[in-house]
Each structure stands twice: as structure tokens, then as C-alpha cells.
Design goal:
Blueprint: E1 3-9, E2 22-28, E3 39-47, H1 52-55, E4 74-84, E5 94-100, E6 104-107, E7 117-118, H2 125-129, H3 134-147, E8 154-157, H4 163-175, E9 178-183, H5 186-195, E10 200-203, H6 209-216, E11 221-226, H7 230-238, E12 240-248, H8 267-273, E13 276-279, H9 289-301, E14 309-313, H10 318-325, E15 333-337
Parallel strand pairs: 8-9, 8-11, 9-10, 11-12, 12-13, 14-15
Antiparallel strand pairs: 1-2, 3-4, 3-6, 3-15, 4-5, 5-7
Length: 338
């Protein structure tokens, strides 16, 4: 515990993020004297999530804070407590927490922007960060609590081949819904049909995407699980059914843009359609994590739900993995093991 490797923000991204926007630094490390409520953790595995891109923007365009130039990148990690001044997190406790891209982190769990999710002692880190990750929990609570699907309804999911979207698609199918997945490229669309069992998969890159989406949903969209926003959201709104529900999970189309994420063009369509749009964050459901993990685990063990994991190795792999995320060069939930 004499050195601490860190991935820092070297330059604020201008448009698409690049590996050169990050720097790997190796600095001397002296274990800190902890205050009450603090813990020192060893970060074991990192979740490479698109939401981090928002924190790389300047302060005026970033939600939940902007990472300063030269500061360590923040993100969710599976970590182990090595020193503790917190009664609820003794030495040896494992958890998924908002940490940083570094070997050792000093955390204050009670004041974190995202609550810590304990990892049961008998659960491998790969399962906690992969199949039963916060991405899977996001799909579970977003679809079931916000979307409230009913068997027979039509559910459309954007970024459907991603770690959140693919689980949302499969849960909708398990519930008995008709499921349409939106993804980029023929390979991802084929995977959605073959592995996730969607009823149809539509390539958003196609010139006639809005027309193809409308044709796939002749009776309208009952639930749209949105990870993308922008033109994809607009196409879904154009085909939304009366009393439809729009689950706002992410706006990845806006993360590389200097302006804010735009909403639908015609809000009166939502008024007269009695359409509900609601955003959410998975941290609101930390007290129900065991419920979701139990149900997701049962579906996985029964063979009704599959989760792909793209596991990479070494702290130095984090910048390249993050860039790959925005080019669709990952296969499933993207994790980096320290």
C-alpha cells in the first residue's frame, strides 16, 4: 500500500471521448487517518458505464458534478474495505460503491451520491458486477416499477443490446410482452433476436428507422424504455399508444454534445395521449436490491435470462474500454478487473 495508480482526466473531451483524454499516473500513497464514517477500500473491479461521460463535461453541462482536470475518474466499483471507521462497514466488507478509478480509495458511504450496495460474501465479484450488477437492477426496477408492464403489451427498448437494455428486453419477454429492440448494426439486431428472444429488432442507423419502428408497432408502443434520447426518443413518441409510459433511463445520444438533451418536439401529443414520462436512478432502490437479485438470479438459473459480460484486465485498460463503449466495441456489460 505504498503506491496508488490512478486514471485521471487529462483533457476535457470535445465531442467524442478519446483515450488521450485520460492519463495513468502512479503516485506515492500513505494510508490516510480516517474520520468517523469513512472507510479505505481496495478497488477490485470497475464498471465502465456511459453515464461517466456526463461527468467529464464542464460544470455547467454536468449532472452530479464535473470531474476537474487532473482529478481521478469516478465510477461504480466493486471494492473491499481494508480499514474502517464505520460500524456498518467493517474490514472485509465487500460492496458496489461510487469510488474512483484507482487502486485505493477513501470513501464516505453515508454521504455518497449513489448508495453503496453490499455484496454477499458468497457471491463472486463477476456475478455482482455482471449478471446481478447495478445495470441489471436498473433494468429490473426501471421496467417493472416505472414501466409497469402487462402481458400482451408492446415494449420497445433503445440501446437494446447494451447491458441495461438487453436485460430490460428479456424481463419484458418473461412478463409476456411483445418486445421490440432498437440497436446499431445487423450483428446486434441478430443477437437480440437469437439470444434475447425479442419479437423484432430494428437498426436505428437505417434511413427509414422511424417508419420501420412504426410498422413494427401497428397498435402503438405501450412502454418505451429509453436509454438513448434524441431522434430515437422522438420516433418512439411518434408511435406511442394512448396511456403509454416512457421510462427515462439514459440519454446517451446527448453525452458527447455541448448542448443539453432535447425532449419531444410536440408535448401536446403527450398531453392528449395521457402519456407518462418518468426518470429514475437505481440508487433509489438500494433497500430492495436483495429482492431484485433473487428474482434475476432465479431467471438466470432457469435459463430464461442471459447476461453477457465483457471482462477486461488491468487498471490501464480503463480508458480504452471506455472509448470502446461509445463505439459499440463491447460485447455486453463492460467490466475491468484491477
Amino acid at each position: 500500500m505504498t503506491r496508488n495508480r490512478r486514471i485521471t482526466l487529462a483533457a476535457r473531451p470535445d465531442g467524442a471521448v478519446r483515450a488521450s483524454d485520460f492519463a495513468l499516473v502512479d503516485v506515492p500513497f500513505t494510508p490516510p487517518v480516517l474520520r468517523d464514517g469513512e472507510v479505505l477500500v481496495r478497488n477490485r473491479m470497475f464498471s465502465v458505464a456511459p453515464t461517466i461521460r456526463n461527468w467529464l463535461n464542464h460544470a455547467g453541462a454536468s449532472y452530479r458534478g464535473s470531474i476537474p482536470i487532473g482529478a481521478t475518474i469516478a465510477g461504480m466499483a466493486a471494492c473491499e474495505v481494508v480499514t474502517s471507521c464505520h460500524a456498518s462497514y467493517p474490514v472485509g466488507t465487500r460492496m458496489v460503491a461510487m469510488s474512483r478509478w484507482e487502486d485505493w480509495s477513501r470513501l464516505s458511504p453515508d454521504t455518497a451520491a449513489v448508495p453503496a450496495f453490499p455484496i454477499p460474501q458468497d457471491m463472486p465479484l463477476e456475478r455482482a458486477m455482471g449478471a446481478l450488477s447495478l445495470n441489471s437492477l436498473t433494468a429490473y426496477f426501471g421496467l417493472l416499477d416505472i414501466g409497469r408492464p402487462v402481458a400482451g403489451e408492446t415494449v420497445v427498448v433503445s440501446s437494446a443490446a447494451g447491458s441495461v437494455g438487453s436485460v430490460a428486453c428479456q424481463i419484458a419477454r418473461i412478463i409476456g410482452c411483445r418486445v421490440i429492440g432498437i440497436a446499431g448494426g445487423s450483428a446486434k439486431c441478430a443477437w437480440l433476436r437469437e439470444a434475447c428472444g425479442v419479437d423484432a429488432a430494428i437498426d436505428y442507423r437505417a434511413d427509414d428507422f422511424p417508419a420501420r419502428l412504426a410498422a413494427a408497432c401497428p397498435d402503438g408502443i405501450n412502454i418505451f424504455f429509453d436509454n438513448v434520447g434524441g431522434d430515437v426518443l422522438q420516433a418512439a413518441v411518434d408511435s406511442i399508444a394512448p396511456h403509454g409510459r416512457i421510462v427515462l433511463c439514459g440519454q446517451v445520444s446527448a453525452y458527447d454534445r455541448p448542448d443539453s438533451a432535447a425532449g419531444p418536439r410536440d408535448m401536446m401529443k403527450l398531453v392528449y395521449g395521457r402519456v407518462r414520462m418518468q426518470g429514475f436512478v437505481v440508487g433509489d432502490y438500494v433497500d430492495r436490491a436483495d429482492e431484485a437479485r433473487a428474482m434475476l438470479g432465479r431467471w438466470i438459473d432457469d435459463g430464461r435470462l442471459s447476461v453477457r459480460v465483457d471482462l477486461r484486465h488491468g487498471l490501464a485498460a480503463l480508458p480504452g474500454a471506455f472509448v470502446d463503449l461509445f463505439h459499440g466495441a463491447n460485447d455486453g456489460t463492460l467490466l475491468v478487473k484491477a
